């Protein structure tokens, strides 16, 4: 009887332990993108993380300035590998060894950076890429795994492949399946992830569903209840996030991995640049999402088991991002470019509402506006130059500065350029059409910004429509197959 009693007790302990793992609270992290024309110093950003008790951060590359600033912070980091590098990594183990040495090993260890994941590509199966990266992903994964093992970090660092939600499809969540052309490769990837103890990382954007489909019910994108619930057998879905998440669960189940942990690599709502992209909607979505996930309610197909982690997209606005997907792309931040909270938001990390970045150094309080005494009929080319070098997306339909009038539009464009150029006196000339003022020209919700002097030694510039990322050790041409390793 003693033997039986011990076994039953042990079994009960195992059940309790298993339950505690399944019910563990999701981690809330953020994406830290750096395509900004007004770049906060990495040390200021890391201090912002600490103030807000943010302990999980996702980077889109191995930016040395960001990684150095994260040393000793205790923040868990996901480092990204751009899609353009996958081709080389799929065919060269030496390239993988070098990248691991230069971008992981050198930062890890006592007092270093707590790197937990490496994201191999970013949404490499996106339909708009027409399969150009598809064949590289699995070979790159296998080569990089060998490199992690050689560097003795494979037990600490896990490889993942962030996928866009368009990798799977279905009219109902329970019928979810990966796109037919991805079935074989997804089977290989999911098997690899499972073998190596990695989660499946997916990016879910209800905003894009709303933005791209005029028939999409707006209330279904949020978490406050809906008049357009989706009934799927015995399950009822009241928001797009749960429906999307369970579509992935069903797709994984079809491959035999229905219990695989899932991490939300990107999720958020933009605040400007398009209809439905505004502060009110962003606050409602992000707070609703956080409350929903931290409630541990889970979803109909995974009751009581929320996502393992979620990474909000994003920390800061990025005024140098491509606007090909839409002019809202530069306005995803929960903080503006200068680290100031855009709206009250509680991340559920025991720190109350968002706290602003400290010790941000601004340029003097002066702005460049249209000269009221000059004929502005010939301003079109100046506007084009200003907006190709600065961000004017708030002037677009649905944007916060869309209704400030023609002269207001000119002033906004002039000022945006003037601030990007660090208020250089010549940058407000525009052949005499611009003039410097010390009176803030902001109107209502339309904010005329003042630049910051805080900047890292890395820089993003716009030149001829091509964005360049420069640092002291490397040059990346973004959205180009060319790249250089950092040495």
TrEMBL record:
<feature type="signal peptide">
    <location>
        <begin position="1"/>
        <end position="23"/>
    </location>
</feature>
<dbReference type="Pfam" id="PF07983">
    <property type="entry name" value="X8"/>
</dbReference>
<dbReference type="GO" id="GO:0005975">
    <property type="term" value="P:carbohydrate metabolic process"/>
</dbReference>
<keyword id="KW-1015">Disulfide bond</keyword>
<dbReference type="GO" id="GO:0006952">
    <property type="term" value="P:defense response"/>
</dbReference>
<dbReference type="InterPro" id="IPR012946">
    <property type="entry name" value="X8"/>
</dbReference>
<dbReference type="InterPro" id="IPR017853">
    <property type="entry name" value="GH"/>
</dbReference>
<dbReference type="GO" id="GO:0098552">
    <property type="term" value="C:side of membrane"/>
</dbReference>
<keyword id="KW-0336">GPI-anchor</keyword>
<keyword id="KW-0326">Glycosidase</keyword>
<dbReference type="InterPro" id="IPR044965">
    <property type="entry name" value="Glyco_hydro_17_plant"/>
</dbReference>
<dbReference type="InterPro" id="IPR000490">
    <property type="entry name" value="Glyco_hydro_17"/>
</dbReference>
<keyword id="KW-0472">Membrane</keyword>
<keyword id="KW-1003">Cell membrane</keyword>
<comment type="similarity">
    <text>Belongs to the glycosyl hydrolase 17 family.</text>
</comment>
<keyword id="KW-0732">Signal</keyword>
<dbReference type="Pfam" id="PF00332">
    <property type="entry name" value="Glyco_hydro_17"/>
</dbReference>
<feature type="domain" description="X8">
    <location>
        <begin position="366"/>
        <end position="448"/>
    </location>
</feature>
<protein>
    <recommendedName>
        <fullName>glucan endo-1,3-beta-D-glucosidase</fullName>
        <ecNumber>3.2.1.39</ecNumber>
    </recommendedName>
</protein>
<keyword id="KW-0611">Plant defense</keyword>
<dbReference type="GO" id="GO:0042973">
    <property type="term" value="F:glucan endo-1,3-beta-D-glucosidase activity"/>
</dbReference>
<keyword id="KW-0325">Glycoprotein</keyword>
<keyword id="KW-0378">Hydrolase</keyword>
<dbReference type="GO" id="GO:0005886">
    <property type="term" value="C:plasma membrane"/>
</dbReference>
<keyword id="KW-0449">Lipoprotein</keyword>
